[in-house]
Amino acid sequence: MSKPKIAIFEFTDCEGCEVEIVSLREKLLVLEKRVDIVNWRLGQENNQPGPYDVTIIEGTPITQDEVDRLKKLREESKVLIGLGACACLGGIPAIIDTKKRKEFYKKIYGEKYKPRGIDAMPLAAYVKVDFLIHGCPVNNQEVVRIISELLAGRTPQYRGYSVCFECKQAGNECRLLNKKPCLGPITQGGCNAVCISGGSPCYGCFGNREGAEVKNLLKILNKITDQKEIDRYFSMFLNRTKN
């Protein structure tokens, strides 16, 4: 019986999520015995064309050529998975105010520059995405979990709890109770509350959990800080969510 063919591609990104896959080391080698990674620019030299059983994509398409390639990969793939915040939510590239894009082009590249870039959007804005592995970067154990679920013939499930649950497990003090902004209550778990454990707030890179009470969180945030700061928190990862 032939092993499932897996391909890993990237668009505009920092490749940090793929580095997390590489950092699996021995676990990646074990995983490779169960699958056939046939196309991965970052991990190997010899790559094969589609079709693929599973295609994993990091990054967001910001040129029409990348959008066209994404659509072709969708046609060639039985299962398409978004890897990381840029693929799932638009990520860091989506932070820029679209109204200011021309101004930045002119300032950075000069008057004669003819831009090819388009607004950064999640993969789901262009094609059907079968599953999203959130994070900035992803939790590499989540990658193993999702692929293992697929190999077992099961449909992967998202975490049914928020980052707050993982904060309690880690013994962190609640930022909101300490009058500090945080998006943990509305953000899907799976990151092990790594940012908060390190002294930073949650900016929502794992996306909204199902049934997230955004309005209730906004009521709390309005008592803690001003609207400008609230907008800054929500603009980091959640301003282009399409799914």
CA-atom Rg in angstroms: 19 Å
Shape: globular
**CATH C-level class of the largest domain:** Alpha Beta
Strands, total number: 5
Number of helices: 10
- Helical proportion, percent range: 25-40%
Helix and strand succession? EHHEEHEHHEHHHHH
Query: How many strands, what sense, and barrel or not for the largest sheet?
Result: 5 strands, parallel
Rounded average pLDDT:
90
Bin the strand percentage. Answer: 5-15%
Please give the oligomerization state of what you see.
single chain
Give unreliable regions as ranges: none
By CATH, the architecture of the largest domain is named: 3-Layer(aba) Sandwich
Largest sheet, order of strands side by side?
Answer: 2-1-3-4-5
List the helices and strands and how they pair.
Layout: E1 5-10, H1 16-22, H2 26-32, E2 36-40, E3 52-58, H3 64-76, E4 77-83, H4 85-89, H5 101-109, E5 131-133, H6 140-151, H7 163-170, H8 194-197, H9 214-224, H10 227-237
Parallel strand pairs: 1-2, 1-3, 3-4, 4-5
Tell me what you see in this structure:
With 243 residues, the protein is α/β, with parallel strands linked by helices. The protein has 2 domains: 5-151, Rossmann fold (3-Layer(aba) Sandwich), CATH 3.40.50; 163-237, no CATH class. 36% of the residues lie in helices and 12% in strands. The protein has 10 helices and 5 strands. A 5-stranded parallel sheet has the order 2-1-3-4-5. Helix 3 links the parallel strand 3 (52-58) and strand 4. It is globular. The two termini are 36 Å apart. The mean pLDDT is 90.
